[in-house]
Write a structure and sequence with these properties.
It is a single chain. By secondary structure, the protein is mainly β. The chain has five domains: 197 residues, Sandwich (Immunoglobulin-like); 54 residues, no CATH class; 63 residues, no CATH class; 54 residues, no CATH class; 83 residues, no CATH class. The protein has four helices and 25 strands. A hairpin with a 2-residue loop joins strand 15 and strand 16. The chain is elongated.
Length: 522
């Protein structure tokens, strides 16, 4: 039976409670109380019901232990059974049970008559434990302290000569675990149990070994000393090592590229198979290897429904070939294609052929699209076609260039520039001397040259000494000049027109420099 906890005890005590007076059945009386302060102050840890080395009426015994940290006085506590037993423990004097101490109570204290049991307290004939359906209850003033039960089914059936022993508490403090038959001999060596000694652990997993027999996992029947070590992340043989020296099982594929693979123990995950990168669960790599490790090489690989080795016809200029494994793509292909072993494919040219064998002809050349030939007045519209070199050209020729004309905003000579060579709008001058006039250049009537938009001033008689070309012939104060009449103006004698002549000279220089800067391009 499983762990006895206070909650479980509380739930069953109303059904199997003891009696207040001797000789009455437990079921005939009201339930006892439950108080956590008294629960397991003392614990029933072992009982011998059916000894072999002595009769039951002399060889039966009960072990009670103090598992707490303070001493317990058993005086006045009551032992009672479902079968009708009733005994008040040491009613007249204290009976102290020290921490970690045990007390063996039996019908007879004489070891020579009870099978060699070290009985420390005799309860005489008050109690006779039954083998079937028994319930032993320890009380203090009608409050439950502890209990034990057995013989209620196959799992807790009493075996002759073996005690009914409570497994020690779990190290983590979660309470007791199992009741089970004692296994070590005591006394005369006929019966088995541990009266007044440390209780044995139970074989909880049924593998014939308990924790105190070096079973490192008593919940798993496959774990224990001498058990075969398996690849499972468990110390199966309880030697402190895990998965050591486990021979690899033949669980990995061992054909083709997997021929060198040996199973590796991966702990709780079991054996793992470290296949090479060339391994495939389903063969798709056409490389002359058995990638799926089934003993077949490149099986079921096809190019357009044709198996390896079959005749094939590639598109375009590639033509007839054989289905092979492509060294570039590791897929089945026709040998004459671009990824084949004897490729006839090349760069695509504009020639009406599928040169790269991709099923398309002259792709990416934009054949038929609009195009133009020539510049300016020579430009002609057409469509793009192949040229003899494998490229493209426009299917029209440009017009013939003419002389550039001034002012029509047309590229007449088809060089990409408009009205070049005609400095329209630049400064210009006409006439000499005092007749000089400044203007702007414009297109001439023939549209092939420019003319200055200015008219020269009228010429006058050359005057002597004024530094001006009065008659506009390019010469100043020549020999036939005439003295100019001077009006009395209060100016100093010998005054002249020199300032006027200097102004005219400066104007001429300025116009000349501007013309040099805007000289037409050659």
């Amino acid at each position: 039976m499983r762990t006895f906890l206070a909650v479980f005890a509380l739930s069953i005590l109303p059904v199997a409670a003891g009696v207040a007076t001797p000789g009455m059945a437990l079921a005939d009386n009201p339930p006892y109380q439950f108080d956590p302060k008294f629960w397991q102050l003392a614990v029933v840890t072992e009982v011998m019901v059916d000894p072999v080395g002595a009769p039951a009426d002399t060889g039966q015994w009960i072990e009670i232990a103090n598992l707490g940290s303070e001493s317990v006085n058993l005086q006045g506590m009551v032992l009672t059974t479902r079968s009708g037993g009733f005994h008040v423990i040491s009613p007249s004097q204290p009976l102290i049970l020290d921490p970690a101490g045990t007390l063996v109570m039996g019908r007879l204290a004489e070891p020579t008559q009870n099978g060699g049991v070290p009985v420390g307290y005799a309860y005489g004939s008050d109690l006779l434990l039954a083998q079937e359906g028994e319930f032993l209850l320890l009380l203090w003033n009608n409050t439950a302290v502890d209990f034990a039960t057995w013989g209620n089914g196959v799992a807790d059936r009493i075996e002759p000569g073996r005690s009914w022993s409570l497994e020690p508490p779990a190290p983590d403090g979660t309470g007791f675990k199992e009741w089970c038959p004692g296994r070590n001999p005591y006394g005369t060596g006929v019966d088995r149990g541990t009266p007044a000694g440390s209780n044995e652990y139970c074989d909880n997993d049924g593998d014939g070994l308990a924790e105190d027999q070096d079973d490192c996992d008593d919940t798993n029947a496959s774990v224990g000393p001498g058990m075969p070590e398996l690849c499972n992340g468990v110390d199966d043989d309880c030697d402190g090592l895990t998965d050591e020296d486990v021979p690899p099982l033949p669980v990995c594929l061992d054909l083709g590229v997997c021929a060198v693979v040996v199973a590796r123990c991966d702990g709780a995950a079991g054996f793992a198979c470290d296949y090479p990168s060339s391994h495939q669960a389903v063969e798709t790599r056409c490389d002359g290897l058995d990638n799926d490790c089934d003993g077949l090489t490149d099986e079921d690989l096809q190019w357009k429904g044709l198996a390896l080795g079959a005749a094939c016809i590639g598109p375009g200029v590639c033509g007839a070939g054989t289905v092979v494994c492509s060294p570039l793509t590791l897929a089945a292909t026709c040998s004459t294609l671009v990824d084949g072993t004897t490729s006839l494919a090349g760069p695509e040219r504009c020639n009406g052929l599928d040169d790269n064998c991709n099923g398309f002809t002259d792709e990416d050349f934009a054949l038929g699209q609009d195009c133009a030939a020539g510049l300016g007045a020579c430009a002609r519209a057409g469509h793009r076609i192949c040229n003899p070199e494998g490229g493209t050209r426009c299917d029209v020729d440009p017009g013939l260039p003419e002389s550039e004309r001034c002012g029509d905003r047309i590229d007449n000579d088809c060089d990409g520039d408009i009205d070049e060579g005609f400095p329209v709008g630049e400064n210009c001058w006409v006439g000499l001397g005092a007749c000089r006039a400044v203007g702007k250049l414009r297109c001439a009537e023939d549209a092939l040259s420019v003319t200055c938009m200015a008219s020269p001033g009228p010429a006058t008689t050359e005057a002597c000494g004024d530094g001006v070309d009065n008659d506009c012939d390019g010469t100043i104060d020549e020999a036939d000049c005439q003295e100019a009449a001077r009006a009395s103006s209060g100016c100093a004698a010998g005054g002249s027109d020199a300032p006027v002549a200097l102004l005219v000279l400066l104007l001429g220089v300025s116009v000349g420099l501007a013309r040099l800067r805007r000289r037409p391009r050659a």
